[in-house]
Design goal:
Length: about 550
């Protein structure tokens, strides 16, 4: 039996790399090219393979240690049956390494000579190609780090490539601007394939055309599964996590344990957007940053096509924004919903009597202006519903204005224009503004300012149907009124049943601010106002 020392091979010109995972332990049997440790630099992660088959008798490194080319990694005791072959292979590998050692320098010298002979101007265009990635096989482009028009500095990541064994970034050869992308995510590329065209701010003799490979030399087999280096601790908290070097670097800067982040990239790979979502979720009280929110596990992916024909369509930006807002409110606000019915018989009779006047005014008098006015009076009488919880939860912000949002169903999704100073406007003024706001919402002519500043919201399904629903509070508001379809029903009047037009209402509120008593009193006042519209003038 002969003992051989395995050292760090050429790691692509990196001055040093961190040991982020030990793949073997003393006593383990290893084969030739089996990974011993995983190294990570700022640009790539890679496995360091064993150059001999045998038994690991000593590990010479630990997690968190910085290693350079030639540093000892482990001592392996080779089997007698392959000792001679291993020695020969070692000699050949050493000879090949010696012969190839000058190669990186040669690669760097060619652009030097080209730059010297051509003497390029201060600003030139250049094609950036796939550098030496340690394999002749095609690899997948899994992430575009830049877009046309982006300004980059030398060394900034342009794209991320991934093979079966490693993920690696292709850096910018110099500072400049990206002019054109020649590839897209999912493309298979090889060494020398053109990735993008960029304009360099300056070109000097040291700037090679394709950037030097951030990946290891062919003798170093990259890692099939990269792992986290959140901290140089004895137990790696991100072990088994699938993420690229740039993501790991960002995670270290944020202080994030990658093992707690759910990846949304191909095969569960963690991308930068996942880290941003994690941080955002943490700031909002979501400890995991998972799409499910809080400690709630996400809904698993389902291949619906396995059960029949499907059609996949892209959601509108408005739909996605609304969904995100609703999820945030639902997760952060403890909801209570109360249900009741308003007797709007007299209100509807009064509205019908004004039909001719509405036509003369060139408008239409719907129930919404009356609902807005009634809510305004109730908000004035019960100011807690016209407040918001300050950041930190220590204070309440009482608003001296009454601005009410009105949910409008549009082809692009739910929009909520805000009717301002509802308490100061007449029924006729509100009628005109309701029609105008709804029209502009459906024609996508609302500005962001038109949908901001609300202190309460009304969501009406009266034109569609239903007997009740649980509307979600639009935080930082603390209350929302859901309106369903009115219908004539027999109502006991003390001596007999009378036909009355009843309007189902659903009042949802933030239980951190509004308790059951507050909600009951507000609701009772609102029902009283809708049942006797004469009070709206008081």
């Amino acid at each position: 039996m002969a003992k051989q020392q395995v050292t760090v091979p050429d790691i692509g010109g990196a001055e040093g790399a961190e040991v982020i995972e030990l793949l073997v332990a003393v006593g383990d049997e290893v084969a030739v090219d089996q990974g011993l440790i995983v190294l990570e630099s700022d640009k790539a992660s890679m496995e360091i393979p064993s150059t001999v088959a045998g038994t690991v008798v000593e590990l010479l490194v630990s997690e968190g240690q910085q290693l350079a080319e030639g540093a000892p990694v482990a001592v392996v005791e080779a089997a007698e049956a392959i000792e001679a072959e291993s020695a020969t292979s070692g000699e050949q590998a050493s000879t090949e390494a010696d012969a190839e050692a000058p190669a990186p320098a040669d690669v760097q010298e060619h652009p030097e000579a080209a730059a010297t002979s051509q003497e390029p101007p201060a600003s030139v265009e250049q094609l950036v190609a796939v550098p030496d990635i340690g394999t002749e096989e095609a690899v997948e482009l899994i992430e575009l780090c830049v877009q046309p028009g982006d300004t980059v500095e030398e060394g900034d990541s342009l794209v991320v490539l991934e093979s079966d064994k490693a993920s690696m970034e292709v850096p910018a050869p110099a500072a400049g601007q990206v002019l054109e992308l020649l590839v897209s995510e999912g493309d298979a590329v090889r060494q020398g394939d053109e990735l993008l065209r960029m304009r360099l701010d300056s070109v000097d003799a040291e700037a090679p055309a394709p950037a030097p490979a951030p990946a290891p030399a062919p003798a170093s087999t990259p890692s099939a599964t990269t792992v986290a280096a959140d901290a140089p601790a004895a137990s790696a908290p991100g072990a088994g996590v699938y993420a690229g070097p740039a993501v790991r670097k960002l995670a270290r800067e944020f202080g994030i344990q990658l093992g707690r982040v759910q990846g949304s990239g191909p095969r569960g790979r963690i991308v930068k957007e996942d880290l941003h979502r994690f941080v955002q979720g943490a700031l909002q009280g979501d400890a995991t940053g998972a799409p499910g929110g809080g400690a709630i596990p996400p809904i698993p992916e389902v291949d619906f096509a396995a059960f029949g024909d499907v059609e996949v369509t892209q959601r509108s930006k408005m739909d996605k924004l609304t969904a995100a807002n609703m999820q945030r409110s639902w997760l952060n606000v403890p909801h209570v919903t109360q249900f009741d019915e308003a007797d709007i018989t007299e209100l509807e009779d009064f509205r019908a009597s004004l039909k001719a006047e509405a036509e003369q005014r060139g408008t239409k008098l719907t129930p919404m202006p009356f609902l807005l006015k009634a809510c305004a009076v109730a908000l004035r009488d019960h100011p807690k519903f016209n407040s918001s919880l300050a950041s930190g939860g220590e204070q309440l912000v009482f608003k001296k204005y009454i601005h009410i949002g009105m949910a409008v169903d549009t082809p692009v999704g739910l929009l909520v224009p805000v009717i301002r100073d509802v308490d100061k406007k007449t029924i006729w003024e509100l009628a005109e503004e309701v029609i105008d706001s709804a029209t502009r919402a459906r024609e996508r002519k609302l500005s962001p300012a038109d949908m901001q500043g609300g202190s309460f919201t009304i969501s009406s399904l009266g034109g569609i149907g239903g007997q009740g629903f649980t509307p979600i509070v639009n935080a930082p508001e603390v209350g929302i009124l859901g309106v369903s379809r009115a219908e004539i029903r027999p109502v006991w009047g003390g001596e007999s049943f009378q036909p009355r037009k009843m309007l189902p209402l659903s009042l949802s509120y933030d239980h951190r601010v509004i308790n059951g008593g507050d909600g009951g009193r507000f609701f009772a006042r609102l029902l009283s106002l809708l049942g006797d519209i004469r009070q709206l003038a008081m």
